[in-house]
């Protein structure tokens, strides 16, 4: 028998019991799994364009077919049910619902998500919909993209269309997934679509993503029933100093501002951090922030979604311009505006196939810090997981002990954070399926379900079975 843990301590048998009602899920994103890129009225997104640009995505891979989820969604929902998931986090493809980024919704696009959601609900799986997981309609980028205010205004219109169509059945909504990546990888280092490399555009994009979030929450609140939940998902960086030197502490402060507080400041406190404005004053005066913007961005949220994979280790750079890899891809352009004197280091420890250090204490520290900084805001881990070089053995089975160890360590960290007072309500593993890992194409497998790309065949890996048992029981075994 499992002995229920008290006060979050492991039971006598070492098992950790999660709170009643804790949400267990898996996550995906539209461009990474759907395929059917030109079907039913969908127009290209910035990722279709980027993937078609030679040299941008490994092996020339695109999301044209991906895991073909657009056609195999029924099978995928059946798998989720078989794997005991209580919730499924997915994203809506803006160019499928509102193809040119403006105007009326396309019925077929909405119908796809309606059918998906109805099937999830029929199987007792809670749908958690993200409005934007990086697939901006190309026409919106052509009209200026996230550096321009008009994109935030258009996003609010799209949010309204989505809520009108799905708000009766989807109660849990997330506006943006990782706006840091959209702004700083998309417009700063260029390792994500649309591939621009302009630090000022990146800062402008960050503000207009903030504004898009606030305006979308307004649109959702106007339309959702009172039980509707609104959130945003941030990839809060757990930034650590290489040494105790004051210069390293300042590097942490600077990167924390550019990675985290540029979003949590306006969204959760209604202001941009003073130090961020000062650090970036040589690039911009932030005149694009208009009167009233901060009030609109600062919306009450029902929870904060947190994505975590690995910590970020920094120091003061030895000499000017010594930019080292920060784990966010290789580019001659830094995603960190006005941070030329910060050096990035590989954190110690084993790494996953992404080269990312495995460090569950980073997740613990992150959750604890958020609980301290925003005490009344519930948290949900909306992504956590690992890529490994998985393959099917001769018997067809996919053994992935590395992923199980990763998940075990990180779930224990979540459990400990809850025991120490963090109000964490759920955990979504990234990812349900192997999928298109952005600039890495199909070379990195994050799924707990193996996808054989030539045939589309799905095979649950050992980790899927392991996680199913945790989700079913709410207990992390010793
Ligand atoms: C996150 C993204 C997600 C996936 C994981 C590995 O930054 O939100 O789509 O690519 O990383």
Structure description:
Substrate binds at residues 32, 133, 177, 309, 430, 437-438. The chain has 478 residues and is α/β, with parallel strands linked by helices. The chain has one domain (23-473): TIM Barrel (Alpha-Beta Barrel). The protein is 38% helix and 15% strand. The protein contains 15 helices and 15 strands. The strands form four sheets. Strands 2-3-4-5-6-8-11-12 form an eight-stranded parallel barrel, surrounded by four helices. Strand 13 (449-452) and strand 14 form a beta hairpin. Helix 7 runs parallel beside helix 9 (199-223) and helix 13 packs parallel to helix 14 (401-419). Bound molecules: beta-D-fucopyranose (FCB). Beta-D-fucopyranose is lined by residues 29, 32, 177-178, 181, 235, 307, 383, 430, 437-438, 446. Residues 29, 32, 177-178, 181, 235, 307, 383, 430, 437-438, 446 line the site of beta-D-fucopyranose.
